[in-house]
Design goal:
Length: 171
Amino acid sequence: DTEFIAFCDIDDVWPEQKLLVQLGELQKSDASWSYHGRHILINGEPTGQFIEAKPIDTMFKILTTRYVGLSSVVIRTDIAAHLPSLEGEYLAEDYIWWSHLMARSGPPLAIYGVFYDYNIHKGSSSLNKLKMAVAAFDVYCVRNVVPVSRSFAFIAFVVYAFSSIAGIIAG
């Protein structure tokens, strides 16, 4: 029996004090889950890019941003027990879970100043924006496995897609 569950993808690396800091902050709050930022590595090489934790206070932000990285998340066990079991193939299945967490227990606590190393491999889905957009459309609009109406999911998808396109154009 444990009070919290933490995730770490096989090729990501946590900072040394991650759990101490994150659990301490989570225990001081009313939040049921938390996350922090990540450094971006490509094939193990630092890129100098990072994604900072930012407040996520609405379902719309969960569905239209990619702030929450799997290896940064800690969830209270009693809440995690209610996450949906996902059958079949999904890309970005963690965002299905984050939307269900938001619906069930409210927004996550954003932990600032902590970063894990997020290792992306060349040729992976994470680098293929088109493939990720198709996956988001599938999850949000076709299978509709997020806890919102299809119309809300479609609007969220459009905003997510245009934000990705704007990011690509901006360089």
